[in-house]
Amino acid sequence: MVKMPGLRRKSCFCRKDERQLNLGVMAQLHKILMVEDDPDIQAVASLALEAVGGFEVVVCSGGLEALERVEKFAPDLVVLDVMMPGMDGPTLLQELRARPATAHLPVVFMTAKAQAHEIVVYKSLGALDVVTKPFSPMTLSSTLLAIWNRAQDEHPHSDSPREEDGP
């Protein structure tokens, strides 16, 4: 059996006709809500996450749409663009944290502005990490899965790498 970090054994079958190589394992990360205003990035990222990573992805074009759809979709991870018209990513993160149903959702920022001091700020806001644009469509899924797994290693007693509950 092939061992793949961050993946759990589910069954032992392979189908040559599937677009994604299925080695009988399934990631703990299944559903991703992506909030991105650029249609080209939406298309490339969602295709990469679905076809390469096998994730279920819902794409929202802005913060208000994300707030309307997040609870029904119930994502495992939210990927937020930092700079968007209307409501930017950090403001959306604050809105998510203010709602009991979404207060502990794991978030990764995606931005072209990713200098070291900015990454520190985004993490201090509660993001797990920051993915820089441009990104490689072929490695985006593995990058997000690595961030997810690292967060789970830091919080081994929770079902997901969400922030620890308060007192």
Description:
It is globular and about 35 Å long. Residues 1-27 and 162-167 have low confidence and may be disordered. Helices cover 35% and strands 18% of the residues. With 167 residues, it is an alpha/beta fold. It has a single domain, classed as Rossmann fold, CATH 3.40.50. The protein has 5 helices and 7 strands, in the order βββαβαβαβαβα.
Question: Notable features of this structure?
Answer:
167 residues; alpha/beta; Rossmann fold; 5-stranded parallel sheet; 5 helices
Write the layout of secondary structure elements.
Blueprint: E1 7-9, E2 25-27, E3 31-35, H1 39-52, E4 56-60, H2 63-73, E5 77-81, H3 89-98, E6 107-111, H4 116-124, E7 129-132, H5 140-154
Radius of gyration: 16 Å
The second-level CATH architecture is 3-Layer(aba) Sandwich
Low-confidence stretches: 1-27, 162-167
Strand content: 15-25%
The share of residues in helices is: 25-40%
CATH domain class name: Alpha Beta
For the biggest sheet, the summary is:
5 strands, parallel
The tally of domains stands at 1
What is the typical, i.e. mean, pLDDT?
82
Name the CATH homologous superfamily: Response regulator
Short description:
By secondary structure, the protein is an alpha/beta fold.
